[in-house]
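Researcher: Next sequence.
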Amino acid sequence: MKVVLLIDHFGAGGAQRQMAGLACLLKERGVDVSVYTYFSYNFYVEQLKQSGVPYEVVKGAESHWRRFFYLRKKLLAAQPDWVVAYLDTPCIMASLVNWLGGKFRLIVSERNTTQTLTRRERLKFWLYRKADYIVPNSYSQGDFVCKHFPQHKAKTVVIPNFVDLDKFACATERHRQQPAVILVVASIWASKNTKGFIDAVRLLRQHRNDFVVKWFGRDLRSTIPKNTAYAQECQRKIKEYGLEDTVFLYPKTKQIAEEYRKADYFCLPSFYEGTPNVLCEAMASSLPVICSRVCDNPKYVFEGENGFLFDPYDVKDMAAKLDEALQLSEALHAGYGRCSRAIAEEKMSEQVFVDRYLSLLRAPHDGQAE
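Model: Next structure:
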């Protein structure tokens, strides 16, 4: 079985992390797998090389206007049995190739939760008629697909993200520091609710100063003006509120596993998510979690057991849940962390993830997985 994985690039994104992992896991299971991108950001490329996964940036496909033609030529020449595409544009490109001469079977993967049903979304799901499977990484997106496109219900299969349970682990029982470290791992842009979080920290600081926030997610290479402007506005807010000694915004890092081990809590204030990689990593690292009550988060975070949920549009609610978390006794704090780890082991293992993909790749042509 020959499988080609297609994604835009291997920069430091959640979808890229999962596809790199999928490639390496399939390789370990003896699958003939290779990876194509059309941009040359290489955050996860070393991982592919270490596992012996062939990787190629398709020359010419970086051009918006010529992308389809170069990708079509490459995919037809490769003659794969399967193509697995992640993210909207690669999924659309692979679907178009399949409509226009492709002989491969196709898995398209939905990596986020759709917020608005645009013309582009409708076109994408129309093109998915040629796909063998639609694989959302969240149950909320699976529900969205089945509700709005019931014709795709039979071939929609949810496969949540996996986490490396060995890499993201805390070897010893956690003992909370003073001040406590609240870790956030997310890009700094509007959908991640950075400004709202800063407002919540301002409220919290009015009556306690026994914590600091480390937010890892600054993109120093960003060329998107609105994202750059948003990050700059966040920095101005921190300075205006006098939080320079409380909220620290750091660049993305490949050493994030160590930051989970050094933290006391994990927070994710996003307005929407798919299945966040960072939530999986934080839970595997035995951290109590404080996050938005959105999408699939309540499937993994249980109040009174391993974390706290808040309304991301309500700054007071966010501040209150942060306050509750900081008030946990030492024993409860450790217990929440153990519970997070247990949930990660049950629901987020590499084995469960790759087995689910292999069941689709080995399915007969009637579309029924084994």
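Model: The chain has 13 helices and twelve strands. The mean pLDDT is 94.
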